[in-house]
Amino acid sequence: MIPIVSFRNVSYSAGGRAILRDFSLEIQAGETLVLLGRSGSGKTTALKMVNALLRPSGGEVWVEGKRTAEWDPIRLRRRIGYVIQDVGLFPHFTVAENVGLVPKIEGWEPERVQSRVEDLLRQVGLDPGQFAARYPRQLSGGQRQRVGVARALAADPPLLLFDEPFGALDPVTRLEAQRLFLQLRRQLGKSAIFVTHDVREALLLATRVGVLKDGRLETLAEPDRLLEARGGEVEAFLGCLEWKGEPA
Amino acid sequence: MMREILDLSLEHLGLVGMSLAIAIAIALPAGIAVTRRPGPRRWALGLAGVMQTVPSLALFGFLIPLPLVGGIGKQTAVVALVLYALLPIVRNTVTGILGVDPAVRESAIAMGMTPRQMLRQVELPLAARTILAGVRIATVTTIGTATIAAAIGGGGLGVFIFRGVASVDTTQILAGAVPAAAIALLADGGLGWIERRLSPA
């Protein structure tokens, strides 16, 4: 089977600094690959190459069997949902207009857009009657991110990219968002690449975890295996789970 | 006298309206065009800024000997007023568009919006208030500066003022200055009202 995304010896540098080095990785259809790393490890850079927000300095990124350089970037991006920490909802659009944007610019009939929007809002746990006509500023952080997820799913893309989407949420709201993520994955079976620096989140959501350090893929393993791994960045991250503070 | 005040006020409004229409037609597309190009942006803002530093009476004077745009009369006055009105509109267009939240911009690109869709549906609506604020500043300034147009035969309420200055007649000066101030206040209030009604970003 063709992997939905594959990085082949990808490198990226900006301002003379290497951010990603010889990065190779394949993501299979239906899996959730979590990229785990510290700030500046190159995980977000890798993610942004998938929807051609960035172009590799060396190597190639393939999406659905085609190099990103060959894709029309507009077509490519409309087949990939994108969820970021700051959500980036349009402040002058209602919730319904935000969620329905991609279907609308794809030329769907207004009635079809509307019913799609209502379905999506229900799927992310927001009552359309209550939320469709609201503006983003009238929502809580958690609700905004739910709308962000609904917007990413709007045109039914086979692939979703998540860039620390729940990083700004309080722990309780974050757990709700993570539950929603798992529930949607069971229902929809989409492929996803998910960037985080939260090791707990990585273990909870991933089918496989890739650990990045200084622009290189250090470890790639299923969550169970990762727990047994020792040494390097993996151990540093797992240490965050185990550390209970110094004895008094 | 009342009759003349009305006529000259209408002439004044004509000068201002024409100048602003031309200034907006130039400054808005120019502002949009230079938003994504930092080099030309510095040039455009610099040039428009220099225009504003030239004393207005001098600018009118400079234009008179020029072919096509120059000479005595309304046309020269409009050219000078347009040059003055450009800066606030270009600057606020650029500021408004560049001020769009980077997360919003990134989302728009990542959703597969074309640059044109992004401009029309995201950048311009979100920049509308700032752009209108620029138009408002340009309008109020132009209403005041247009009184100097009378010095080069452009007509308008400045006719009273120059006549009053020449004959040391305060009534004549007031007959020009009061309507000009009233028009400026009305325009400022009206545009300010529209500005507040545009949905806050």
Can you put this structure into words, describing what you see?
The complex is a heterodimer of chains A (248) and B (201). Chain A has 248 residues and is of the alpha/beta class. Chain A has helices at 43-50, 73-78, 95-99, 101-105, 110-123, 128-131, 141-153, 171-188, 199-205, 223-228, 232-242, and strands at 5-14, 17-27, 32-37, 58-63, 66-67, 80-84, 159-163, 191-196, 208-213, 216-221. In chain A, the strands form 2 sheets. Chain A has a 6-stranded mixed β-sheet with strand order 6-7-8-3-9-10, with helices on both faces. The longest helix of chain A has 18 residues, at 171-188. The N and C termini of chain B lie far apart (47 Å). The model of chain B has no long low-confidence stretch (mean pLDDT 91).
Main sheet: strand order of chain A: 6-7-8-3-9-10
- What is the β-strand count of chain B? 0
Class by SSE composition of chain B: mainly alpha
Write down the overall geometry of chain B: elongated
Radius of gyration of chain B: 19 Å
SSE run of chain B: HHHHHHHH
Query: SS-based structural class of chain A?
Result: alpha/beta
Uncertain regions spanning at least 5 consecutive residues of chain B: none
Distance between the terminal alpha carbons of chain B, to the nearest Å?
A: 47 Å
Question: Portion of residues in helices of chain A?
Answer: 25-40%
Order of helices and strands of chain A: EEEHEEHEHHHHHEHEHEEHH
Largest sheet of chain B: none
Termini distance of chain A?
A: 55 Å
Name the poorly predicted regions of chain A: none
Outline the fold blueprint:
The complex is a heterodimer of chains A (248) and B (201).
Chain A: E1 5-14, E2 17-27, E3 32-37, H1 43-50, E4 58-63, E5 66-67, H2 73-78, E6 80-84, H3 95-99, H4 101-105, H5 110-123, H6 128-131, H7 141-153, E7 159-163, H8 171-188, E8 191-196, H9 199-205, E9 208-213, E10 216-221, H10 223-228, H11 232-242
Parallel strand pairs in A: 3-8, 3-9, 6-7, 7-8
Antiparallel strand pairs in A: 1-2, 1-4, 4-5, 9-10
Chain B: H1 2-35, H2 38-53, H3 56-63, H4 74-98, H5 102-110, H6 115-145, H7 158-166, H8 170-197
